Amino acid sequence: MGAGYSMAAGVLAGGIVFAPVSTLVSGTAASAGVVLSAIPVSLATGFVVGALTWRFLSSSVPYYRAVAALVTVVGNYLAGTAVWLLLAPVYGYEVLNPYVGADPPTSLTEFLGASFELYPLTVLTVVVWTIWIAVPLSLIFSYVHERSRSGE
Known about the structure:
mainly alpha; single chain; globular; 152 residues
């Protein structure tokens, strides 16, 4: 559970740093809204992925802390992006509609198909935009978590 809390804290810290940076880079406050809408989803998936990683990854793996941190980052990218895409209509993001110029999906099957089409590009976009903050924070928070577990 502590690993989940640790990774969720890393996600929160990353979101707090990244939201203003995205606004500066894009020149609009709308990008910060997208980032901030992803934080609750990433917190939840970061918690689950972090807890599962530390629970099931063998501590005999070389460079255990670093590997666990990187597995958590990758897992959170994959799981968090999938959940966020599925929740995108709740946030009202028209930009996530692959049927631009056409009618939006009207059935669950069409919606899931659209999400599936967008998933690879969305994961790639998220990775490109956030890798600079996600990996260092994950490494730091995994180090802190392991130190607190060992009582050092």
